[in-house]
Hints:
The complex is a heterodimer of chains A (115) and B (779).
Chain A: H1 16-21, E1 26-33, H2 39-58, E2 63-71, E3 76-83, H3 86-95, E4 102-106
Antiparallel strand pairs in A: 1-3, 1-4, 2-3
Chain B: H1 23-35, E1 38-42, H2 49-60, E2 68-72, H3 82-90, H4 100-108, E3 113-118, H5 124-137, E4 141-147, E5 157-160, H6 175-179, H7 182-194, H8 205-214, H9 219-226, H10 234-245, H11 255-272, H12 275-284, E6 291-292, H13 293-300, H14 307-319, E7 323-328, E8 331-336, H15 338-350, H16 354-373, H17 379-388, H18 390-402, H19 407-424, H20 427-439, H21 446-461, H22 465-482, H23 485-501, H24 505-522, H25 525-542, H26 545-562, H27 566-581, H28 585-601, H29 605-621, H30 625-641, H31 648-665, H32 667-679, H33 682-691, H34 712-722, H35 727-734, H36 738-752, H37 757-765
Parallel strand pairs in B: 1-4, 1-5, 2-3, 3-4
Antiparallel strand pairs in B: 6-8, 7-8
Helix pairs in contact in B: 1-2, 4-5, 7-9, 8-10, 9-11, 10-11, 12-14, 12-15, 13-14, 13-16, 16-17, 16-18, 16-19, 18-19, 19-20, 19-21, 20-21, 21-22, 21-23, 22-23, 23-24, 23-25, 24-25, 25-26, 25-27, 26-27, 27-28, 27-29, 28-29, 28-33, 29-30, 29-31, 30-31, 30-32, 30-33, 31-32, 34-36, 34-37, 35-36
Amino acid sequence: MDNTSPGGRSVARPPRSSLAATTADSLFLVERRVPAIADRELAMLQAALTEASQRFHSRGEHVCYLRSIFLARQDRLLSLFAADDAETVRAVNEAALIPFASIEPAVELPGPGQP
Amino acid sequence: MDRVRRPQPTGLPAELTSFVGRRPELREVKRLLATTRLLTLTGSGGAGKTRLALRAAAELSRGFPDGAWLVSLAPVQDPLLVPQAVFTALGVHDLSAGLSLSSLTGYLAGKRLLLVLDNCEHLLDGCAILATTLLSSCPGLRVLATSRQALGVAGEVRMVVPPMSLPELGSGISAGQALNSDAVWLLSERATAVVPGFTIDTGNAAGVVELCRRLDGIPLALELAAVRLGSLSLDQLNQGLATELSILGDGNRGADARQQTLDATIGWSYRLLDEQERLLWARLSVFAGGFDADAVTEVCSDPQLPAPQITGVLGALVDKSILTRQLTGSSARYWLLDTLRRYGQQRLRELGEELPTQKRHLHWICTIAQSVGAWDDRQVEAFTRVSRERDNVWAALDFCAREPAEVAAGATAARHMMTFWACRGPFGDVRRVLTELAGATPQHSLARAWLLWVAAVMAHRENDYTACAALCDASRQIGTELKDVAVVAWSLLVGAIPLWAEGDLAGARERLESALALAELMQVEHVELDARSTLCGVLTATGELGRATELGEQCIAISKRRGELWVRGFALNYLSQAIWLRGDRARGEALAREAAVCKHALDDLNGLAIVLETLAWMAAELGQHERAAHLHGAAARVRQETSQTLIALFHTQHERSESAARDGLGSRAYDAAFTRGRAMTIDESVDFAVGGTQRPTPAPAGRPQPRPELTSRQLEVARLITDGLSNKQIAARLFLSERTVETHITNTLNKLGLNSRVQISRWVDSLNQPGLATAEERP
């Protein structure tokens, strides 16, 4: 068994063992394909992710939607979340009704002058 | 100019039983919806939220030019499929390549419409985001939601649906006083359906009031109890329920207590059923979004529940208000109320039958999928059936995701369903679900290969050619390792499409020739059919018109022998181009018109857009500039509804055709004709494309509904029911067995779409109206 499949779409559900290994406030990068997306749709997507994350946070779940980066030439959107585990990030993205290609644990390397 | 009045669209189901009481609540819903754009009706299960919402929506629908629509969310488990549930309710295929939520927003943006989101409680977050997103982008939209909990979004107004009003306590209550309460009124109405002539009088008023109070005025509990008056006396009913509910005590009758009352009443109702009825209720809980009797026989029958008895047991469950039944076309479709479905699921688990029944449900879906995958003359019918069973298809795939041992069966079903999904979508969701399933299969398995292949087809439909190529390569690799010719051939075939789209005609041709050679060698006719069609298209583009014609004609011959339409539509389109380029313009155009008919029959909008484009090119070359402009407009409109983009290879031809028509007509006239073409509905576009150069006239709206036909025997039984005879008495009068009488009654109910003997009586009363005839009475 493997968790990736071709076509730039890796299986979204990370193996349980990897979820257990993550620590509180870990970072996760969510990747999705957004072909021919308009600015209005990007704004809608941003609002949906923000609201879904806030709903989860308001009921005590440790998850925060941080930001997204849109790669226009590749039709890709990369969204960064801080959360206890990937399963919560998955639930937030499902609640936002925005499909995704993958959720991967991430490490942020701050630039000079950043904390 | 005469204005054509179009019928107002409606997406609300017919009420199968009378709507009773709730006048203050109804007034309040309507008042609140006049001042807010999001109203959520909350309350415990069985409180009547859905009935109230539907009645309010029906009464308000005149104020919404684009109608009121029910979105039933009970069968939906995957939150990401919530936007699809809305599309399905609206009768629209999501053929977009982008985000479903965004497509839905675009579809609803200019509409004045009321959306009833029913049963939101298990998808609360998703429904909240859906409501917020749609309301912020669609100014003419209002949402009426029903849920055990409020959605919890800004601007939402909540209204708690209370139990039905109850009469005051006291032994001296009159019948009139009792009937002033909604709970007694409902009980009386439903009792009348099972005990003709049932009335509330001084003799039974106290007992009825006691029963309604005992059931806390919960509509579902009252319905379940009332139908029992057909076999139990009021006293027996009160005593039975007193015993059942005594453990709940007499504490504060709050929401939790009412839920306990409902649960206990459902349990009591379940235990009063006979063994077969209980078993069927539990097994029916595996269905999502309704089912018909054939499906029930397939999934639920066994030696304990023999197939010939299924119809009778279904009828008994309808009589006891466990199921609702609605006539759909010529057959009946059944639904389990969500609360009762959940109860059935619990019983199924207790019986230890959950897994085997879900497996049978999956295998039933596989059988339906096989009829799609047969590529024969059942294709249109099979597409219609799968469309009707969409919720059950998703439920079956969801089961596969939870049961790795069943993924192979799910992959087989998916392989068969490819043509349906390629026509109807939703491409992104199918690709997502199948890719996830592929991730749960062993790397070198046929199941994985097929799942990746169907995902590749969906990627192609989304214009994601990079993913399409990668998915095909992965599928082909597995097929090669496992020496499975069908997988290798199909992967080569679909893998040729990205090359074709990118203009690599030699590469595409090489793959298609390999696919065709393999298919011919191993006699895989589906691949042979599709490979000939696609190769015909590629060779037409390379100018090898002789071989293209040969392949196209061979393909159409095979297709006609099989009776399928999907490939034939494409093959006719490519062959029409080859024949046209060889100089036989009349035949070329005739073939393209035939292609449009094939694509329209399957509701394949992607295919139809291609054919309309071909016909536009032909019209421009014939100097029929106005027709060309109309067709370019129609093709643009169909493309707008789909994910389709013109591939680079066709850009030059498209531009040349548009320029010719524009030059011929002049810019202003071209734009006007293009706009008229773009304004045509799909049906009008096809009529125009196929029919000639005249604009089609709109089809007349509002055809009269055919009246149901009963046999003379069924009518005879119906008349005796009206005379108040029991089944036993009818059987004696007509020299029939009681079982036969029951069958006649069940068939009559099915034909008329009714639920009770009283409704049959009322229907018989209408026989005095002119124009009604039985099948035998007709000349």
